[in-house]
Backbone:
């Protein structure tokens, strides 16, 4: 019941498209602040801009209620040194985090996260989000503070970052008095619907099911101030124009660029199925500077051929569940537990080799299991019923497995990591670290354009998205207050409208899935485990052929297929940006996930810088910025935020 | 009367990310609005269960089932290759979600 053919068999006719078709029609509106993308960062930007007096429009491809990678939930509020149990000052932790993340991190975003994400969390609580164990469900679990009822997580208890520290496997490595208490477990599945409600309460005009397609420049000139954006309604096909004094880019990365099989890519990616690189593509077309576009890494979790977290591959071990072999022998790997100080099994290097050798010698027998039954009852309860029940797509796993008979006090979940022998080098994360270059106002290189969350370069996680979204909303509102509306160009709008609607003019040719698969194949073959100038050139040549031969045949029979087709076009642009940046970086780098056969020397000193790229008159221009170009994080933050008033007061 | 057989293209894989119980579903379309990727469309007949139009685009976030206001109306259905396995530690018996 419920399938398309059920309906056909029942009624004798296929269902008609359920929404009015409005191809060619357009709606125009105006805003002080326009936010593109209604995920975690976008919601926080919209709410905060509205609280600062701005008239806000929020454009979202799905429905803001549950959209984005963080829509289903979130179990950890990471790097929250402002919390009362923290043992390190926010500015000091920010430096440690930046250093732990290596040369290509984003010190601006990290500093904002460390300074403001506890305030952000308290605002979440104000709105009704659950951030403490107020129902006393987890009394006795390690890390629970009985006074504040905060639940501290073992993550980052000894060091910023996931890497195991020396001595992690020794008894007494992580005594309670030495812990930094830097991450809180939270009830994140309650958050997103609350954020949508708050958007509406604050008067934000929410445009659900509208995919942003382009930024509008003043007078239509690439590189000039951003004065709004266009979008397409994914249900009706209506073209939307929003003129805005300031625009916050908050759409996500491009998780499916290397994923040839969308059916697998869809159901196995930990990122939203709707990711398609729109933020980088739109910003690049508008003339903004991007950076870190050359980074990519194999998908360690859910590669597209693998299972979701916690039901398989690299799952049960991933967060505080001991990993055992078929004979219940504990594997010599960290599991982000209290004992190892939250260190992660990295599935690469000596740790992985050690386990593999054990498998081959017979020391460890497959299959492996996440040993919930071997944990203390309070710990398995906190892991299963709080962490996994609140973490994004694992909530539904907890429900279905519990209903199916799984009992975390008695059972162990099978782990497939070493049957699958991940990672698969050709299933990569599409330059997730790449994005819009931002300054201390989270402003891009273009006036009127701000960025938050995954749209910024080298982004971090949920609390980063929330804190940077909130910050960008504040800054964009301040900018909008001091400026007039810019002049949009009708010519630019008409060109975009023609581009966007082109696939609807055709009824045959090539459909979006095949186009996507063709592009992914290029990425897998030429931008995979091994790289060279020749391989990059072949990739660019093939993409050019795709653009010349396949794109003119792209057809979309309804607005949904049009949205997917436009995502493909966005990913083609994204791929070109990524490959151009990679080609310009003549290096092999573990940090950037690049193994160049023609430049085998790893991480050379002269390449320790940020590669910036932007488009001008159809040409790509490159420049470099030194590592840590953002200066002294504490001083810069304070210089730019003298008017910051902390947690929002609802009576305002 | 003989049942009519239509010419239908191959069914998408996976095809049923959620099972909808037509006796319980009241056709409120909360799932249609919740799903960020438009897996569902509303049924043309008001009050009847939604139609799974794009089941192969599902990323198994589970929000439709989580937010369904009618108990028993919607059950999550992992595709066969994704059905989780577990073992009872005391007996060694291996189970798999049905």
Residues:
């Amino acid at each position: 019941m419920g399938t398309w053919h059920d309906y056909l068999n029942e009624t004798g006719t296929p269902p008609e498209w359920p929404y009015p078709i409005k191809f060619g029609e357009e709606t125009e509106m105006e805003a002080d602040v326009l936010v593109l993308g209604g995920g975690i960062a976008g919601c926080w930007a919209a709410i905060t801009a509205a609280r600062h007096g701005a008239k806000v429009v929020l454009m979202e491809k799905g429905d803001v209620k549950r959209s984005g990678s963080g829509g289903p939930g979130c179990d950890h509020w990471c790097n929250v040194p402002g919390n009362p149990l923290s043992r390190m000052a926010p500015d000091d932790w920010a430096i440690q985090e930046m250093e732990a993340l290596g040369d290509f991190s984003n010190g601006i975003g990290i500093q904002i996260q460390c300074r403001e994400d506890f305030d952000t969390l308290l605002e979440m609580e104000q709105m009704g989000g659950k951030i403490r164990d107020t129902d006393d469900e987890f009394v006795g679990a390690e890390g629970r503070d009985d006074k504040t009822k905060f639940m501290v997580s073992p993550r980052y208890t000894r060091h910023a970052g996931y890497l195991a520290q020396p001595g992690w496997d020794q008894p007494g490595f992580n005594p309670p008095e030495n812990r930094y208490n830097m991450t809180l477990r939270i009830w994140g599945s309650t958050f997103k619907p609350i954020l949508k409600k708050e958007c509406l309460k604050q008067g934000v005009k929410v445009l659900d099911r509208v995919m942003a397609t382009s930024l509008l420049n003043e007078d239509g000139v690439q590189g000039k101030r951003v004065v709004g954006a266009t979008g397409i309604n994914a249900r009706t096909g209506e073209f939307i124009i929003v003129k805005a004094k300031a625009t916050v880019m908050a759409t996500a990365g491009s998780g499916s660029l290397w994923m040839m099989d969308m059916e697998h890519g869809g159901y196995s990616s930990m990122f939203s199925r709707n990711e398609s690189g729109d933020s980088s593509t739109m910003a690049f077309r508008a003339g903004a500077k991007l950076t870190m576009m050359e980074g990519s890494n194999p998908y360690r979790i859910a590669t597209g051929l693998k299972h979701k977290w916690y039901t398989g591959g690299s799952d049960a071990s991933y967060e505080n569940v001991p990993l055992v072999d078929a004979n219940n022998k504990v594997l010599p790997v960290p599991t982000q537990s209290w004992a190892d100080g939250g260190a992660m099994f990295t599935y690469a290097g000596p740790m992985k080799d050690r386990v593999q050798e054990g498998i081959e010698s017979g020391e460890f027998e497959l299959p492996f299991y996440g040993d919930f039954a071997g944990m203390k009852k309070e710990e398995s309860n906190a892991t299963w019923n709080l962490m996994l029940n609140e973490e994004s797509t694992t909530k539904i796993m907890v429900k279905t497995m519990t209903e199916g008979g799984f009992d975390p006090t008695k059972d162990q979940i099978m782990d497939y990591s070493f049957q699958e022998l991940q990672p698969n080098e050709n299933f990569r994360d599409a330059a997730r670290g790449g994005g819009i270059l931002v300054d201390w106002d989270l402003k891009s290189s273009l006036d009127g354009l701000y960025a938050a969350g995954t749209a910024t370069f080298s982004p971090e996680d949920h609390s980063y998205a929330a804190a940077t979204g909130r910050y960008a909303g504040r800054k964009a509102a301040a900018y909008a207050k001091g400026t007039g509306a810019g002049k949009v160009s009708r010519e630019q709008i008409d060109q975009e409208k023609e581009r966007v609607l082109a696939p609807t003019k055709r009824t045959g040719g090539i459909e979006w899935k095949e186009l996507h698969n063709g592009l992914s194949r290029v990425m897998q073959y030429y931008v995979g485990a091994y790289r060279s100038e020749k391989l990059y050139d072949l990739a660019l040549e093939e993409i050019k052929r795709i653009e010349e031969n396949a794109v003119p045949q792209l057809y979309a029979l309804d607005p949904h297929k049009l949205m997917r087709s436009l995502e493909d076009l966005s990913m083609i642009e994204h791929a070109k940006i990524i490959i151009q940046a990679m080609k310009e970086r003549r290096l092999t780098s573990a940090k950037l996930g690049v193994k160049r056969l023609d430049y085998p020397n790893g991480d050379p000193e002269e390449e320790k810088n940020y590669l910036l790229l932007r488009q001008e008159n159809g040409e790509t221009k490159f420049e470099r910025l030194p590592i840590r170009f953002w200066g002294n994080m504490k001083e810069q933050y304070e210089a730019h935020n003298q008017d910051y008033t902390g947690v929002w007061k609802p009576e305002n | 009367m003989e049942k009519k057989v239509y010419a239908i293209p191959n069914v998408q894989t996976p095809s049923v990310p959620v099972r909808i119980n037509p006796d319980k579903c009241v056709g409120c379309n909360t799932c249609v609005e919740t799903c960020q990727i438009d897996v569902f469309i509303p049924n043309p007949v008001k009050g009847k269960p939604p139609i799974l139009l794009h089941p192969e685009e599902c990323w198994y976030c589970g929000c439709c089932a989580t937010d369904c206001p009618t108990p028993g109306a919607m059950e999550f259905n992992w595709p066969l290759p994704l059905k989780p396995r577990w073992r009872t530690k005391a007996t060694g018996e291996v189970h798999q979600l049905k």
User: Anything to note?
Assistant: Chain B touches chain A through 58 residues (CB under 8 Å). Chain B has one domain: 18-96.
